[in-house]
Every structure is written in structure tokens, then in C-alpha cells.
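Forwarding the complex inputs:
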Amino acid sequence: MSSCIHHCPSHHYQVRLPHRAGAGSLGPPRPAAASFALPSCLRRAARARAMSAEAPPGVAPAEPGPSATAAVLSEMVEDAAVWCAVHGLVVGDRDNPRSGTVPGVGLVHAPFSLLPARLPTSVWKQALELAPIFNELVDRVSLDGEFLQEALSRTKQVDDFTARLLEIHQKMMAVNKKEDIRLGLHRSDYMLDSETNSLLQIELNTISISFPGLGSLVSELHRNLLIQYGKVLGLDSERIPRNWAASQFADALARAWSEYNNDRDGRIVSVVYFRAGYAPNDYPSEAEWRARLLMEQSSAIKCPSISYHLVGTKKIQQELAKPNVLERFLDNKEDIAKLRKSFAGLWSLDNEEIVKSAIEKPELFVLKPQREGGGNNIYGHDLRDTLVKLQKEQGESLAAYILMQRIFPKASLTPLVRGGVCFEDLTISELGIFGGYLRNKDRVIMNNPCGYLMRTKVSSSNEGGVATGFAVLDSVYLTDEVAEFQLTTDY
Amino acid sequence: MSSCIHHCPSHHYQVRLPHRAGAGSLGPPRPAAASFALPSCLRRAARARAMSAEAPPGVAPAEPGPSATAAVLSEMVEDAAVWCAVHGLVVGDRDNPRSGTVPGVGLVHAPFSLLPARLPTSVWKQALELAPIFNELVDRVSLDGEFLQEALSRTKQVDDFTARLLEIHQKMMAVNKKEDIRLGLHRSDYMLDSETNSLLQIELNTISISFPGLGSLVSELHRNLLIQYGKVLGLDSERIPRNWAASQFADALARAWSEYNNDRDGRIVSVVYFRAGYAPNDYPSEAEWRARLLMEQSSAIKCPSISYHLVGTKKIQQELAKPNVLERFLDNKEDIAKLRKSFAGLWSLDNEEIVKSAIEKPELFVLKPQREGGGNNIYGHDLRDTLVKLQKEQGESLAAYILMQRIFPKASLTPLVRGGVCFEDLTISELGIFGGYLRNKDRVIMNNPCGYLMRTKVSSSNEGGVATGFAVLDSVYLTDEVAEFQLTTDY
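Prediction (whole assembly, two chains):
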């Protein structure tokens, strides 16, 4: 790891900090009213500092000496945890049995990275640029009912859930149902692949997008920390992009409501927002399916419509990555090139050559079940075993999965705060860009990025959303490290 | 209690709600994702409704029927608890052992009243009017060092803590220390006495004023609840006065800082804010006393100065209530009349006649120790026993207490929410008006009320701050019930 300390674009500051000060041993932590264990990262930081080639040899630190740095970071942890408590950056504490059952009790600060993740400005701009193009793509694909039905025809043989969704979609096609006003609240997730030096899309979410609220808050947390401590840390709070995800999504919903009511009078439901409905568990009985159908049949704006929902499936992601498919939906060649550049390798299990490669080198692939919801991806030995088993069965069950190129983001040592305690671990980061899209017939009312979500995950875990305990909330610190990514222009 | 339902000025809405709807039995609670026990208050409400003389007999409810009302209130509890979680209206959960030790963990919504407390607009205006007068009084009294030393001379014989404060004050007098810039952040607490129909001051706090932050938030909570549910409840969110206590106090501190730096250059401490220092426990060793002295000797603006601190003692409150004492400090006769009208009976234990009365009728008095910090007041039998014991001793220990007229606020049934659960209890309310004062020599820069804090306490408890578990945070709902209080004009 040490060779990556200065160059990996996603790394955090804990490993940079020491280089700003001279060598020296770490003093004892300041005695605080609230007793914090001294983060082990600070001790490691001191060691890294002692080894740093950047620290001018023999020169005493001009600003924060070792113990000052330790004290500052310890103070930051405390300030940050308090900030979370008084600004609603909280989640339910799994250790509290009432949490999640009774609102307002058993709260704990959301797990967060103490400092924002470094990201080259060029990559940031690239990700923002992609948001309206993906928004438009979703809309165009949603209009091609035949494509959706055809692309998912094999998936539905093996996946009852997708089959039910397709059934509703089919009914809408049968009555030629048109959605004049279409609202999309999406999030496209990316990682920076160290092998190809490129920003690669992990997935595109089109239903029940999580974290616009907490994501906005953690950016504010980091800004506030850097406003207070930026000088001593040598960091500029202005390099954290503003994040209005929550209010921009709310604005999109309000504009949809307003657009709908411009044309109609009376007290009817104008916008249906799906906070659930993306997983089989959300439909415990036929009643929920009837409700879903009823909503789809109504004239209300659905966020998402059944079509938008289906466009977000992994199978469609994989279909769109095939040669010449984007061209069916988009006209602008530059846009198409930008999208394609962000696509990782995606294959169906019909592709025998790729399946063979994956069995040989499972470490280069991820096997993804067609359905939504984190925590189900298959890696390594399990991937190999599953593929071998599926090959033997030779049935339709192959259609329940897609294979994806495994992305290798560089890992960095990051101070993470969970349960009020700071600890350091090797992490990788995943950048989500929220996108809002609203159109009424031919008039596009909104099509833009709507803030972002950085999730930083302990790199030893193959996968994991923040909610499953493997990751922390994070934000972005823009850097000028452009050179490395200009290499990827011709990719 | 039932006779008080329509008239007591401090009562809450739970007992009014039913009168808006027709008679009928209460339906089952709506099944909610989060399981809330149906507040017992709702069942009682239904009974009260059935008995109500105001409900037009035989007329079906025009708006929310009984079960609708139950569902609405149950929904309100849930919404309110969630609002608290995401807006920082949280406190440490005493059931969590890490809470209070590690910031950001073991959080729970602050206990609150589900609906704001009714208060006649006339009383509200009276309380606001008093704020700048009390601010000015504190300032004037603080300048009369001899008065403070003299008034507290006997107290210091029996109270080491006051003696130490007076010692510092004496040292400042000896060197003729002047505080050109004086900053006061105060809170004057009142109750509405049902015996005299008047607003009576409980105490005036001049150091480490609590709850400007949570107080502001609970007003916002109630406003938001009424914006959402006001129509169905027949309540108007605009009747909750805006509460900017936290930002107004912050503004006062910033203006003090700015005022100080107008005259000086360089990096020195300009404002010292005391978040502690008001209780003996805050001075575990001589080091803290040396620090207090050092700060007092410095040219920094102290909030509060030692003089302001001493003016807030109960003994000074009692001295100021003596005839002709206010006239020593204030010129404006109307101001003096307004202050005096808000004074409850206050006596030193030198007053043998009053001590005799208190032993005979202890229920009409409160015995207050001289020192700060809730939970130490003595009532009833204990008051009698203590007075008898003190009389026998006949020493200086009499000076450690003052006697105060016991105030009898009307009690009302109020829905309280604690730990996510709503329950109903008989409560009384105490109104605190924050006041901010800043002057530089002859120039008064700020002198105004700075928001408010309503604390609603279970009336069976004689005393108790919110933090001690006997009370909930509350806000104000202004009513037009003026008549009752016009009676008190000549009091």
C-alpha cells in the first residue's frame, strides 16, 4: 500500500497529513471531557510521517506538530460526532432493540469518513456530464416497450419478480398507455478502475434512490470540519462540491406536481413516489401487486413508471453495453461515446467464451443476480462454483445472472468514524451521481445532476451498502490530479 | 380538572380536540409500520367528547371523526419523533451506558409535548416587555458593587461557593476594575399563578443559560406539525411565535466579539462564555478558581462577569423584591411597576413572621437554597421540618435559604412524547424568556428578548428541569383569552 499513498486518486488525507509536518513522536492525546480513544490511525500517521520522503529532513514542523495534529484529529472526531447529532446525520443503532421499530429512539451518528475522499476534478466533471445523458437514455429506452420485453424475455423465465413487473408493463402496452409527464430520480454509481485508469459505471438506479438526504448532510459535515480545521490541515473547504441532493430531488417532485396540476383541477393524486417496490419482499401478497398495477394504470406521474423501473435492471444495463445498442436510442455521437467509455464489460451467461474466462480467472469478474438490492453479488471461488453449477444445469437459470468486469479501485488508508470511535482501515470509494429528469411531452423541464453520494467501503469486503455495515458515508474533495486521467481519453 | 378544561390558560389541545367533533366511539388505531401504542389520551379524549356539552347533539361530525382523530394523532407522534431525529432535537439516552461519554451515540429524541401550550397573547406580550427591563436591571445592579457585597454578606457566611465568588468580586472592586463592554445572555422564568391570575417570576438566570438551541427547535417542530395537521386539528401554525433563541444568542456573542475588536488589534481572547462555573462541582480544585479569577482580571468580555453572575443569585432576587430597592437602580416608574408586578413574594428567613406562616402553612411556600441548579427546592413537610430545625439552630444557616410564595399554575391534561411513546398526564408549564444585552460604555448595542423556552412538567412533581426527567420541551400557542388577565392589571 505504501507506494500508493501519494498517487491514488481516491485516497484520504490521513496518510497525507503527516507529510505536512516534520518527523517526531506522537504526544499523548489531549485530555477531553468526553473520553475518546486515540485513533490508532494517528499512531500510524506518526510512523508514516517518520518515514516520509517529503518531510524536509531535520526541519522542525512549521505548523501543527505531531501532538498538535493528534489533538486536532481527536477534536475533529468529537466535533464531527456532535455535528451529526445536531444536524440529523443519524441512523438507527442496530444494538438498540427498539431502534427501527419506534421512530426517534436508539439513534446514533451515521458512520462517516473523517475527511472527504480525493477525486480529480476531471473525473468529477466527467461524472457530472454523464448524468443528463443517462437521464435521457433512460427516458428513450422507456419508450421502447418492445425492446424492454424482448431484452428481458429470458430473464422472466427464471425470475418471478421481473416476470411480474413485465406483466404490468405488458398490460400498459396492450392499452397503449402513454405517460406524457415523466419524472426520473436516478443515481448512477461509479468506481475509478486502477487497471484502466477510468471511471466505470457500477450500476444505474432508477427506483427508490437512497441517501440524497444523508449524502447532502455528510458534504456539509466535511465542509464544516474543513472550515474549522482546514487551515491546520492544509485543506480548503471550497474544494468540497456543494451537495443539494435532497432539496433538488424535492424540487423535482414539486415541479412534477406543479406540471401535473397545470393541466388538471381537483384533488387527485398527482405524483406517486416509490419508496419501496423494488424487491420481492415489498410484495408479500397479491394486494401489493394489485396496488402497483392500479398506480400504473392511473394518470398520476409515477416515479418511476414501470418502464423506468425496468430500464434500471442489470439485464438492460448489459443489453445497452452491447455494440450498436446505444445507437438505437441516442443520436448524439459524442454522448454515446461518453456513455460507452463509462461502461464496464458486461456479458450475459450465453457468452460461453466469457463464462470460460470467468471460471478460469474468477478474480476478474463479478457475477450479479438480475434483481435489485445489495449484498447478493458473487465473487471468487463462489463465482466459479456457481458458474460450473449453472453450466451443468444448462437451463434457463443462466438468464438470472449477468457477468461484469471486476473493477479494481485503488485502496487507501482512511480514518472512519463509527459509534463515536475513529479507526483506520484500507478502503475503496464509490461515487454516486444523482440525476433528476422531468419532461412533459416534448418539453424537457429538468435534466441535470442533482448532487452526489460518496460511499467509502472497507476494501476487504467485496460489496456492501452503508446500511449493511461495510461502508461509511463520505463526500468529495476535488484535486488537480488531472494527468493520470487524461490518459483515459482514448479508451 | 374537568371544570378547567375550557378556561385554564396553559392547557393543551388534547382535551379540546374532542369538542370539535361529534360524539362517537373511538375506532381502532390505524395499523402503522412503526408500532405505537395508542395513546391513552385518545381514549380519554373520546370519553370527554361523549360528555361534551359543546358537541351538537345528534349531529354527525363534519370533520375528523373519532377514529380519524386517533389516526391523526398517532401519525403526528410518529412524524414528530422522526422530525426530531432529522433536525437535531435529540438528547442523550440515559438507558445507553455510552451516551454522555461518547458524542454522537445513544441518542433519543428530546421529550416533548405533542402540541404547544396555550398562552394568552396579553401574557406573552407582558413577558416580552419585561425582558429588556430585566436586562437593564441586571446591568445597573452589577455596577453597584457595594450593594452586591452588602446584600450577600450573610449568605457568604453559610455558603462557601457564594463566598468564593464574592472574593473575586471584591478583588475586582479593590483594583477598581471596569467592564466597558458588558454582555448578558439571560433567561427569566415565569409561571401563571391561578390564585392571582398573574405572571410571576420564578427566577432570573444570568449564567450558562440552557436550551436556546433545543427551545428554538421545538417551536419549529410544533410549527411544522401544525402546518401539516393544523387544518384537521383546527389550529393555526402562525399562532406559534417564531423562536430564534439560538441564532439571536449567537448573534449577541458575535456582536460582542466585533465590538471588542473594533477597539483592539491582534489575536487575543475577546469573549469568554461560561458554559460551566455556576455550581460548586465545576470547581473541583483551586485551579478552576484561579482560572475564574484570571478570566475576570482579563480585559475580555465575560458572559457573565462576576457581577452579572452575582446579580442572578436568589438572594439578590429577594433583595430586589424589597420595597424601594428597584428605585435605587431604575428611573422609569412604569418599568419599575412592570417588574414589581411580576415579583412573587420573596423573603429572607430573618423575617420571623413569614417563617411562622410558612411553618403553619408550608403548602403556600417554597424554600429555596441560595445556590443555583434545579432539584434542591424544599416543599411541604420537608419545608416545615427544615424551618423548625433552622430556627432551633438560630445560626447563620438561616441565610442559606430564601422563602418564596408558592405559585399555583393551573394544570391541564397534556399528551407528552418520551422515548417515542405518547402518554397523557396532568401538567403545568413554565415560560422562560431569553434576553440579550450588550453595551459598550454609554452605548446600548442590544437590549431585547431573544426567543423563549416553554417547559411543561408533570404537575405531581414539585420541581424538575427537563434534564432531570420530570419535564418536556414545549412551545407557545397564542390565544385571545385576554379577559382573565386584564383582571390582574391592578394587582
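Chain B has two domains: 2-113, 118-206+239-490.
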